[in-house]
Amino acid sequence: MYLSFLLVSILWSLVTVAYPSDWKHVIHERRQVKPEGWIRHSRMHLERILPMRIALKQSEIHNLDSHLMRISTPDSNDYGKHWSYEKIVDTFAPSQDTIREVHEWLLAAGIARGRIKKSRSPGWLHFNVTVEEAEILLRTEYHLYEHEVTGQGHVACDAYNVPRHVQSHIDFITPTIHFDTKIVPRFDHRTRERKRSGTGFGPWGKPWLPKASPVANPTLNNLQDCSNNVTPDCLRALYGIPTLPPTMRTNPGNSFGVVEYTPQSYMGSDLDKFFSNYSKNPVELYSSAPSVLECPSTPVQKRPTLLSVDGGNIHNTPNLNQNTESNLDLQYAMALVNPLNVTLYQVGDLVQTEYTSFNNFLDSIDGSYCSDNDSTDNVTSPTVDAIYPDPLPGGYAGPRNCGGHAATKVISTSYSYNEHDLSPAYETRQCNEYAKLGLLGTTFLYCSSDFGVAGSQGRCLDPSTSSYNDGLSGMFIPSFPSTCPYVLSIGATQIKPNASVTEPEIACATKIASGGGFSNVFPMPSYQSQALKSWFKNYPPPYEAGRFNNSQQMRGYPDVSANGAKYVVALLGGYNYHLYGTSASAPTFGAVITLINEARLNVGKGPVGFINPTLYAHPYLLNDITNGSNPGCGTAGFSSAPGWDPVTGLGTPNYPRMLQYFLTH
């Protein structure tokens, strides 16, 4: 071990001599605390291979916000003038200066030109290096980590350095400080005690088994029973959502996408049972399959249009843990927009379920973002995002999806990370991608999480160490990507117990609490400024900086909300269960936007695209929620209030008001 240290020190000194004398190195990224659940072991063997990826700084990225606001602000002359994909690629491609400076650095460090490859997108450089080369290049040390629960291995360093003159040309480099963190489906129906003691999706353990409550013979489509059993008809009554004629001619330019991450997978028989019970217009069509052509009057239930991303597929196996999220999302998304089609982006194979990330999905709909890091022999392991073709036995062997799928006009995702689990540079790069796709006219919706002001599993941060604790006290944990200012973050409401469907809703307080709070990474966007200033002035929270970022300068979330309690969902062969969570709220709100897009497209207008500035400028388009809170970390959390608040945002959708506005603007 001593010889390894000595060898690296000697090589560092030799490379320093080879560098120009004015090449001063600075820390580019540093991890502040030990990653939760990981045990650091020995230094990595110097001959092991690492797949190094450099995210190059993009041109014009400093003007990205102003470009997006110009086409998304209602009183702008450019409102609704969405960009072409080609214009986005050309505008934000890294400059030749950036490419040249980074190349010169790598060449001076001994990385041969033939080893350095550009991705098919212009934003990345990638090359394989030995651990020895990586440590010299980045002035760092790599260690092997092992997860204390799963035994999963990982390679990382605590910090890394780059030349000062190169730093402004690089967003981040992997593998370095980043740890692969499993994205979290936003539902958990356990008691608080089990949340603290069990394991969950996340870097600390295996997926939890959600406790779905069986429903005993629910009354079908009974609007008098919506406080006990939420069905599509209840949501239509709550928000004025229309029922479209089953034979209507749909606009081919409209599209609604739902993203699921393997091993989550819907069950076709469960969709059939749900639609037969709760879809006022049966979701059906005539199949073109030969067996059905013999009897053309035989209807079969619709399925979402499957777009497989990196080996994603449907496995029809009844499993509460693996069917719950996908069944919930698709049953309600499809029922609410019927007869419009729903696209399912199924992401990842069954092998790399611990690695598949939002970036893997984003790669598939924007080739200019894709790092194109195909795996090679002897590569140690994935870093933050899964590597495809999958180098692991039984994994997806096909090519990585880089821009192979079109982005739908609305995309709903019911998964999230703790903002604390990823580096600010990584989160910023991904957040900017949502903005770029917003320029295309796509609306991204993310659920805000189900643990109030706490992080996944109800955990919080120790203020002195910034490490996770048991959730009984400590600092609040924001949810990402909800804290990205370029997505629409969706919180959760519920019908008051025994109340009518026509009465005002309250913040969800049954089984889950609507996620909400303030980012520690992203500053307050301009469209939120007035709403947040008003809230801090009129309804100041009783917490100091030791609880949350109370600078009044950071992004607040959620933006809006929708019902998230007692959804009746068909599971395990068609049995009815209650499910709770912002994971139900996101596809519901997404369905509303999809129906508005349909109406706009039918009169020659474009999709609403990035909708946040419009909603904040015209909050009357939503039903304000003024009762409830989102407890966590041993506190009552924040409180709902008139106007925007960090519990339910601006409120729930009011389809008639929204439709009237968007048809005239």
UniProtKB/TrEMBL annotation:
Give an example GO molecular function: metal ion binding
One GO cellular component term noted in the UniProt record for this chain? extracellular region
**Cofactor binding note of this UniProt entry:** Binds 1 Ca(2+) ion per subunit.
Which cofactor is recorded for it?
Ca(2+)
Q: Which Pfam families did the record assign?
A: Pro-kuma_activ (PF09286)
Major site of localization recorded for this protein: secreted
The GO biological-process annotations, alphabetized, read as: proteolysis
Q: Which UniProt keywords apply?
A: Calcium, Hydrolase, Metal-binding, Protease, Serine protease, Signal, Zymogen
The residues that hold Ca(2+) are: 624-625, 643, 645
The residues forming the signal peptide are: 1-18
Q: Where is the Peptidase S53 domain?
A: 229-665
Which compartments does it reside in?
Secreted, Extracellular space
Claim: Protease is one of the keywords in the record: yes
Source organism's superkingdom?
Answer: Eukaryota
> Where in the sequence is the active site?
325, 329, 583
Protein name, as recorded: Related to tripeptidyl-peptidase I
Q: What organism is recorded for this protein?
A: Phialocephala subalpina
